């Protein structure tokens, strides 16, 4: 039995993959409405749209504005009722273990068949956790630097998280204020709050802190 009338976001920066996935899954979820985001910022804009409720996010770990696990951490912190399934070309046990540790409801390798995608989505929407067969999860050490930064990152508001992403892109306060439609003073206030929550002193340190959650830099030991 498949869940019906779902609103699902595909968050991946490759339009061909998003289109192929949507087209392949539509027959199995005929009443589903599909939404697409090609960056962490586009995903946040969808979530900010109060007129729409979502049932699931299919999230790529590596897309513009998303430093490894940072967007997953943000989603689980601020949208705890919204399940997230990671879709990734990285299929190793360490990546999968970290994704589950940060609250993913499932992990689907991009190499998986459409039948597997359909089954995984169905299982998660029925309240289960879905993992690739044969995966042995690794133990996560909660005392390392990346874990501490994950906890700090979860304290940022959605707007503060967007500003931090823009810091990472190298945008100036004036550019960020223009893009977000607010004053430079508001951006400076956000910056102060971000520095305080992350325990850093400036933009450079804030970006370095965010980069601790890049997939290749996360340490499980």
From TrEMBL:
Indicate the segments forming the Response regulatory domain, all copies. Answer: 7-125
InterPro entries the record matches? CheY-like_superfamily, EvgA-like, NreC/VraR/RcsB-like_REC, Sig_transdc_resp-reg_C-effctor, Sig_transdc_resp-reg_receiver, Tscrpt_reg_LuxR_C, WH-like_DNA-bd_sf
For this entry, the protein name equals LuxR family two component transcriptional regulator
Determine the domain of life of the protein's source: Bacteria
Residues annotated as domain HTH luxR-type: 149-214
Q: Which UniProt keywords apply?
A: DNA-binding, Phosphoprotein
Species of provenance: Shewanella fodinae
In the record, what terms sit under GO molecular function? DNA binding
**Keyword Isomerase part of the UniProt annotation:** no
The UniProt entry, under Gene3D superfamilies, shows: 3.40.50.2300, Winged helix-like DNA-binding domain superfamily/Winged helix DNA-binding domain (1.10.10.10)
What's an example Gene Ontology biological process for this entry? regulation of DNA-templated transcription
Residues modified as 4-aspartylphosphate are 60
């Amino acid at each position: 039995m498949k869940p019906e009338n779902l609103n699902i976001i595909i968050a991946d920066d490759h339009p061909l993959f998003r289109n192929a996935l949507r087209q392949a899954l539509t027959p199995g979820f005929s009443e589903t409405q599909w939404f697409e985001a090609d960056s962490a910022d586009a995903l946040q804009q969808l979530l900010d749209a109060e007129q729409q409720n979502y049932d699931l996010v299919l999230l790529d770990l590596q897309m513009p504005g998303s430093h490894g696990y940072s967007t997953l951490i943000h989603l689980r912190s601020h949208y705890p009722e919204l399940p997230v399934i990671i879709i990734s070309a990285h299929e190793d046990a360490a990546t999968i273990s970290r994704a589950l540790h940060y609250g993913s409801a499932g992990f689907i390798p991009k190499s998986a068949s459409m039948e597997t995608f359909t089954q995984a989505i169905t299982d998660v929407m029925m309240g289960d956790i879905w993992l690739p067969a044969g995966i042995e999860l690794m133990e996560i050490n909660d005392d390392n630097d990346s874990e501490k930064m994950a906890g700090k990152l979860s304290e940022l508001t959605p707007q503060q998280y967007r500003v931090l992403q823009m810091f990472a892109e190298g945008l100036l306060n004036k550019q960020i204020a223009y893009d977000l439609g607010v004053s430079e003073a508001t951006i400076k206030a956000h910056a102060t709050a971000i520095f305080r929550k992350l325990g850093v002193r400036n933009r450079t340190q804030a970006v370095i802190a965010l980069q601790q959650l890049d997939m290749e830099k996360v340490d499980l030991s």
